[in-house]
Specification:
Strand order of the largest sheet: 1-5-2
Radius of gyration: 20 Å
CATH superfamily: Ribosomal protein L22/L17
Structural class: alpha+beta
Number of domains: 1
Helix content: 25-40%
CATH architecture: Alpha-Beta Complex
């Protein structure tokens, strides 16, 4: 690895130490369905988001709930504090499309219809709300 790349990689690693996130790769759900669930909890307080995901009837909400719990656990290990004491919220949720499985379904008159089985990658960031804004 070149010196320039090494310096930028180390700077990126240092910047990631202040971010608290969890990633979920290759989820076998279409990105459009996962974005509906992500939009429900974006910018919300963590405990409220967990309760919304728990009682949501969407299939993608189960995976998102598990990912949010993982992000909270990552925050707790980096900060070495309990999440109940902090004012955590979901700062950002990104849903990107992943690989697509392409299949053929038989159709009338010797034709074949293309079936695209989509999957996605989800990245969820949590952060603390600053309560010292009133002091400034």
């Amino acid at each position: 690895m070149g010196q320039r790349k090494k310096i930028s990689a180390e700077a990126r690693k240092e910047a990631n130490k202040t971010l608290y996130f969890a990633k979920l790769n290759n989820v076998p759900t279409s990105p459009r369905k996962m974005r509906l669930v992500a939009d429900m909890i974006r910018g919300m307080e963590v405990n409220k988001a967990l309760s919304i995901l728990k009682f949501s009837n969407k299939e993608a909400s189960f995976r998102m709930e598990k990912l949010l719990k993982s992000a909270i656990a990552n925050w707790e290990t980096k900060v070495e504090d309990k999440a109940e004491n902090a004012n955590l919220y979901v700062s950002a949720v990104y849903v990107d499309s992943a690989t697509m499985l392409k299949r053929l379904r038989t159709a009338p008159q010797g034709r074949g219809y293309r079936i695209r089985k989509r999957s996605n990658h989800v990245t969820l960031y949590v952060d603390t709300k600053n309560t010292n804004d009133n002091q400034n």
